Amino acid sequence: MTTTCASTVLIFRALADETRLRLLNLLLEGELCVCELCEVLELPQPNVSRHLAYLLQAGLVTERRVGRWKHYALPQAPVGLRRTLLTCVRRCLRDIDVLAEDLERLGEVQA
Q1: Where are the domains of the chain?
Q2: Residue 2 to residues 37, 59, 85, 108, Cα–Cα distance (Å)
Q3: What is the CATH number of domain 5-110?
Q4: What is the mean pLDDT of the chain?
Q5: DSSP class of residue 7?
Q6: CA quadruple 30, 12, 59, 17: dihedral positive or negative?
Q7: Residue 75 in contact with residue 60, Cβ under 8 Å?
Q8: Which of 14, 55, 97, 99 is within CB 3.0–4.6 Å of 25 for a Cys-Cys bond?
Q9: How far is CA 109 from CA 20, 26, 77, 96, 106, in A?
Q10: How far apart are CA 34 and CA 71, in angstroms?
């Protein structure tokens, strides 16, 4: 995927929101259903879906439909700026309290 100035702006806008950062942090753990994301974040489905659509448009997540449910994941092989920023989320943002709490809740939801 070619990175243009417009797509770069879209990527940074996608990352400039707490809910979207929380979603990316959770998706670093693997593919998740919207229902799981809603439960962990304690947000309504339309709200989570809107943020996921923004991340999808920026090329930061992929979606897969299973019946009536949508599952989201990080791209298999992100390149360029997307790869760098997703690596940064994985390495740099995990110490933020709310992101660590989300990971704990995810473990509880999946148990």
Answers
A1: 5-110
A2: 29, 11, 15, 39
A3: 1.10.10.10
A4: 91
A5: H
A6: positive
A7: yes
A8: 99
A9: 19, 12, 27, 20, 5
A10: 6
Amino acid residing at 51: H
Q: What does the block give as tokens for 55?
A: 């991340």
> Can you tell me the distance from the alpha carbon of 110 to that of 105, in angstroms, rounded to the nearest whole number?
9
Q: How many CB atoms lie within 10 A of CB 21?
A: 20
Whole-Å CA distances, 46 to 51, 96, 102: 9, 25, 19
How far apart, in whole angstroms, are the C-alpha atoms of residue 44 and residue 21?
A: 17
| Ordered per-residue pLDDT tens for the chain, 111 residues | 556 888 889 999 999 999 999 999 999 999 999 999 999 999 999 999 999 999 999 999 999 999 988 999 999 888 888 888 888 888 887 788 999 999 999 999 998
pTM flag (> 0.70): yes
